[in-house]
Amino acid sequence: MIETDRGQDRLIETYRKKAKHYDITSRLYPMPGYPHGAQRLRAAQALGLRAGDSVIDIACGTGLNFPLIEEMIGPGGRIIGVDLTDAMLARAHDRIAANGWRNISLVQADAAEFDFPARVDAILSTYAMTQVPECAEVIARGAAALSGNGRWVVLDVKAPDKTPRWITQLGTAVVRPFAAIDEWVMRRPWESIRAAMQEELTDLCWTELFFGSAFLAAGSAKYARRTSS
Ligand SMILES: C[S@@+](CC[C@H](N)C(=O)[O-])C[C@H]1O[C@@H](n2cnc3c(N)ncnc32)[C@H](O)[C@@H]1O
Predict the structure, then answer these.
(1) Centre of ligand 1 from the C-alpha of residue 224, in Å
(2) DSSP 35
(3) Is 69 in the pocket of ligand 1 (CB under 6 A)?
(4) 3-class SS at 158?
(5) How confident is the model at residue 171 (pLDDT cuts 50, 70, 90)?
(6) pTM value?
(7) Is the pLDDT of residue 184 over 60?
(8) Count of beta carbons in the 10 Å neighbourhood of residue 166
(9) What gap in Å lies between CA 146 and CA 55, rounded to an integer?
(10) 101 Cβ contact list (under 8 Å, min separation 6)
(11) Nearest CA to ligand 1 atom 26
């Protein structure tokens, strides 16, 4: 187990309990029938991947994004899956073995401390970034590591702005096990993510999904900044 001094132990314990059945139970949050599959596909497509590309999946969990990414990058590409929770990575490892993928490596690390390799083609994070207190810093460090045409895509839940209370509850149910929901809603981490992506990337596209209960944010590397450094 990795050392953590940021109060992440509870989060790790929670995901250890969820890991075994995560692929099934995650479909039930925030409600059965929630369009995760369609949202994941949109997120993967927003990466603009080509055969041979390198992709980092931040907080990859059990690797539910891997099949989509693999189909786009092919065996000549490369995926690095990063996650804090050993048990989630163990399921991701099982998925890799079952599919015979040879181009995926897994790293157990806190996203806040992960050392992004230089010149990656794309970074993706799904249903996780609003749980990372240092999300703005992670966005910035990822952006600095992108190749000239690189893309950063974040898909996650948020509290809807102008929708009935029952939809707000649906949108926030997913984070209830990990954080005090009131604190999460008050902190509004999706706004920090949006501001950081606006600052660190170019051509940011922000799309609200499913009555504002989720967002898809996608931006491109600031090429000029990287070539001058
Ligand atoms: C809801 S799951 C999402 C997993 C996967 N991205 C997906 O779309 O199914 C959240 C994941 O984020 C991971 N996580 C939470 N905080 C993290 C952090 N600070 N660094 C790395 N991983 C983190 C958890 O271990 C968990 O696997």
Answers:
(1) 32
(2) -
(3) no
(4) coil
(5) low
(6) 0.91
(7) yes
(8) 8
(9) 10
(10) 66, 70, 79
(11) 61
Please say whether the beta carbons of 136 and 192 come within 8 A.
yes
Strands 146-157 and 120-126: parallel
| 122, β-bridge pairs | 55, 151
Confidence band of 110 (pLDDT split at 50, 70, 90): very high
d(CA 85, CA 124) in angstroms, rounded, equals 18
Q: Residue 96: which residues within 8 A CB-CB, separation 6 or more?
A: 63, 66, 104, 106
SS3 letters across 38-84: HHHHHHHHHCCCCCCCEEEEECCCCCCCHHHHHHHHCCCCEEEEEEC
Give the number of the atom of ligand 1 that is nearest the alpha carbon of residue 64. Answer: 9
Q: Enter the tokens of residue 62.
A: 């059990």
Res 70 pLDDT > 50: yes
Distance CA 174, CA 178 (A): 9
